[in-house]
Structures are given as C-alpha cells and as structure tokens.
Amino acid sequence: MAFYLCSACYRFIEAESQPEKCPVCHIASVLCSTKSGRKLRLPAVRPAGEAEILAYRAAVDADYADKSFLERVDGLSSYALSDDEYHIALMLLFYSKSESTEHIVHYLGHLLPAKRLCMEDRTAMAMAWSLYMSAKNHLTSQVSQERRLAGEADAAKAAAKTPPDSATHILLRFRQSEYDTKLKKPRNLGNIRRVNLKKVVMEPSDEYLRFLTEWYNSMV
Fold first, then answer.
1. Are residues 122 and 24 in the same domain?
2. CA–CA separation, 82 vs 189, rounded Å?
3. Which of 191, 100, 99 is nearest to 143 (CA)?
4. Domain check: are 43 and 137 in the same one?
C-alpha cells in the first residue's frame, strides 16, 4: 500500500496505485497558479512526501493506542471487512485482553506483508491459523463460562448479567444473514463455529491487513 494526499480536501489515502480522483471528496483535479499568475490544472491526488507520511503514521498510531478495548471493537466498522474477517477481528481483540502484548505482537508481526518478505507463505499461514484458533477457542470457552455463571443458556440474557466487554456481548456483535435476522434467530456458539478461518488465512483482504497493521503499529 502507498500513501497519497488530496490537495482539495487534504485527506490521506492508502491505495495500491494512485487514484484518478479522491475517494473522499471525489475531486479529480485542482487549479494552481505560477508566479506569473498562469493557471495550471493538476491531479488532486498526489503521492505523499516522506515527512507527511511519517507525521500521518504518528498521528494514526497515537489515536489508535489511546483507544479502549470497546473503542477498538466499535472501530471495526471503519474497515470494509467480510463477515469472516469481521468475526475473526472481534475474536482477536477479545483474545488480546487475556494475553500479553508481546504474545499478540509476535503473531501479528508474522502476518503482515512487510514482515513476511523473508518468510515462506506456509509459515505465515501456520502462524495465522494458530492465532485464529486460539482466539476462537478462547471466545467459545468464555461464552460457555459466562452462560453457566449467569444461569442463562441464551447469550442475550447472559450478556445482560455481564459487563459490556464480556464474551457474550462480543458474541452479540456477530453479524447474521438477512434470513436469520428476519427469523430473529439468537446468536449462539454455532455462530463462532461457522467462522471460516481458512478463507481469511489464505486470502486476507487489503482492508483486513490494514486493520492488522494499524493494530500492530499501536502496540510496538
């Protein structure tokens, strides 16, 4: 991913290649003036300078590091994630509450493209599978425990007796199909079991990698 800056709305843009127009303000070109007053029409989006990129990264990292657990969870809506990616991200964030920062950083560092250049893909995939399975098993275990302690088999009823950052509250954030939503199907451990880890291990999207990168940068 490369960094670009829009001269019209001054927004930073992360993209594989330079966009023809700004994805935020949708302006394609801007007018500039020379010393003599001659008008020039230039592309609105230009490559960001090194100093600008450093300042941008520092600001992003500072904002992200200041976020609480629930703010990080709420922040997932700012990423265009598939359902499986979103669910794995939820599980990873919840798992990170019970693990050391060093443990999470160790795994995330091996999943990011910039960190994988000298590694075989199968090694990174094995690391991803191990981390995702640990996060999935942890959420499953914690949901079962909270339901048992609350004396409620229904996750929504159990969540009412637990703090907002509990496992059952995280489960209630899982997305459901339009069909399940219409039928008002309750979320349960089946929602966790149905998360397709393999697809995210094999084909992570750019947005999902952006989530991992920004999370990783906030911890190192």
1. no
2. 20
3. 191
4. no
State the CB neighbour count (10 A cutoff) for residue 173. Answer: 14
Q: Is residue 129 part of a domain?
A: yes
pLDDT for the residue 75: 92
User: In this model, does residue 163 exceed pLDDT 70?
Assistant: yes
Q: What distance in Å separates the CA atoms of residue 111 and residue 117, rounded to the nearest whole number?
A: 11
pTM for this predicted structure: 0.69
Name the nearest CA neighbour of 5 among 39, 47, 55, 68.
Answer: 47
Kindly state whether residue 14 falls inside one of the protein's structural domains.
Answer: yes
Q: Is the pLDDT of residue 37 over 90?
A: no
Which pLDDT score is estimated for 119? 47
**Same-domain status, 112 and 209:** yes
Total domains, the chain: 2
Its domain, for residue 37, covers 2-48
